[in-house]
């Protein structure tokens, strides 16, 4: 539960602690502070993009408790005590994650603005369903807009990761 702090003008602020990419961060935020702003402005995790700021484009997609969400639609105080994974935390080591590699190798990146959100959405899908079909991939990335690639190579990249994943392998983000 967030600790409430009232400043000398009577305005309430909230002390929150969030776990981002495995590290705990404590910050004091206003009630209306968006999670995307904490990630980008407070924690300097600029891989999470700010696009429409209406929850329509998906460029700010992160994993909140392992579920993809638009961080522009989440108040920072709603994330208090929760686990967050951004594009910077997708890889489990200094190597790129399989999904990141597949995007590069399959030409699924052009301008790159949508890429972090697309990768996060694809990662979430592959974690819960390591062998999706094309329709399931398209549904999983439906909340992410891309004006450059037409989605063909993005879908191809996700399906390639699926093909290369054996049934015993888990595409986890733990």
From TrEMBL:
The keyword Signal does not apply. Keywords: 2Fe-2S, Iron, Iron-sulfur, Metal-binding, Oxidoreductase. Residues 14-90 form the 2Fe-2S ferredoxin-type domain. Pathway: Alkaloid degradation; nicotine degradation. The keyword Iron applies. GO terms for molecular function: 2 iron, 2 sulfur cluster binding; metal ion binding; oxidoreductase activity. PANTHER family: OXIDOREDUCTASE WITH IRON-SULFUR SUBUNIT, XANTHINE DEHYDROGENASE IRON-SULFUR-BINDING SUBUNIT XDHC-RELATED. This is Carbon-monoxide dehydrogenase small subunit.
